[in-house]
Design brief:
- It contains eleven helices and 14 strands.
- It is of the alpha/beta class.
- It folds into two domains: about 190 residues, Rossmann fold, CATH 3.40.50; about 110 residues, UDP-galactose 4-epimerase, domain 1, CATH 3.90.25.10.
- The strands form four sheets. A six-stranded parallel sheet has the order 3-2-1-4-5-7, sandwiched between helices. It has a three-stranded parallel sheet with strand order 6-8-12.
- Strand 1, helix 1 and strand 2 form a beta-alpha-beta unit.
- Helix 1 crosses helix 7, helix 6 runs parallel beside helix 8 and helix 6 crosses helix 11.
- The protein starts with a strand and ends in a 6-residue tail after the last helix.
- The mean pLDDT is about 95.
């Protein structure tokens, strides 16, 4: 085999679904191995069933397919992580350690692992949050992301593992449902609007959070992984920004297309999580190091989301 193969772990998720497609388009479907704990909703060229905690199965897949690059997306997200914190720790931390050890052993040549704005907390500067700042997460998900960032930096420094990471904001996508995060409102609200339904939001109307449309998130991931190693100055997790918006601002944007759409508000336990996160993110270092630039603002995201959701058949995910 002349070209190394790539393994996407957590390929059925919101990000994994679209990243797997993008990698297949870029490198060829024969080089991409998708994996998850359950069968994919849509067929893929190469799929392997995998629980990321099953180290032996992970090693078997990597060996059989001669995988040299891993995208480790499997995780328990913020809201679900608060409901089952010990499971969140096991999945998010042990899965990462299994992959980093393969990098240390020289089996894997390159690793991608997603961090999150959840590494920040209530004492982090809320506006224009810098790359290097206070990280004091208030959720188990955030704790695992902060610990994971430090592990990535440690393995890169001590064992020369080429591991790369992005601190994703809330991701907005129409192709796959969200996976239990606090920013799920920014996806659900569009699904309701496209279906002609009003939306009850679990956050207060003025809760501003960093968000990103999925094409930008996929582009950032590909750009980061294609950049020469010497350009990657941050091995813990790069700040990444798209646009920031509140539920009320998204509602206003939707009403430009669907004038009678209405959102009501019934904050729940996720409000406290959202309150601990920044309003806006400074991603200048990503721009400086590997020329990152987002393309979608709130208006463009809203237009594209509603257009594509209108094309989906009832019952589609």
């Amino acid at each position: 085999m002349t070209d190394p193969r790539m393994l996407v772990i957590g390929a059925n998720g919101q990000l994994g679904t679209e990243l797997t497609t993008a990698l297949s388009d870029l490198y060829g479907a024969d080089r991409i191995i998708a994996s998850d704990v359950s069968e994919p909703a849509q067929p893929v060229a190469h799929f392997e069933k995998l629980d990321v905690l099953d180290k032996d199965r992970l090693h078997q897949i990597i060996r059989e397919h001669q995988v040299e690059e891993v995208y480790l997306l499997a995780a328990l997200l913020s809201a679900k992580g608060e409901l089952n914190p010990m499971l969140a720790w096991q999945i998010n931390m042990n899965g990462l350690l299994h992959v980093l050890e393969l990098g240390k052993a020289g089996v894997l040549k390159k690793i991608f692992w997603p961090s999150s704005i959840a590494v920040f907390g209530s004492t982090t500067p809320k506006n224009n949050t810098p790359q290097e700042t206070i990280t004091s997460p208030d959720t188990m998900y955030g704790l695992t992301k902060l610990a994971g960032e430090r592990l990535c930096a440690y393995y890169a420094r001590k064992f020369d593992v080429d591991v790369r990471s992005l601190r994703y904001p809330g991701l907005v996508s129409y192709k796959a449902p969200p996976g239990g995060g606090t920013t799920d409102f920014a996806v659900d609200i569009y699904y309701h609007a496209a279906a002609g339904k009003d939306y009850e939001c679990f956050l207060q109307q003025d809760t501003t959070l960093p968000l990103m449309y999925m094409p930008d998130a996929v582009k950032a991931t590909l750009d980061l992984m294609q950049a020469p190693a010497q350009q990657i100055k941050v091995r813990s997790g790069y700040n990444l920004a798209g646009f920031s918006a509140s539920p009320a601002e998204i509602t206003t944007a939707i009403r430009q297309v669907i004038p009678d759409f209405t959102t009501t508000y019934a904050p729940d336990f996720r409000q406290q999580i959202a309150d601990s996160w920044p309003n806006t993110i400074n991603d200048q270092q990503a721009k400086d190091d590997w020329h990152w630039q987002h393309q979608y603002d709130l208006k463009a995201t809203t237009r594209d989301m509603l257009e594509n959701l209108a094309k989906k058949r009832p019952g589609d995910q």
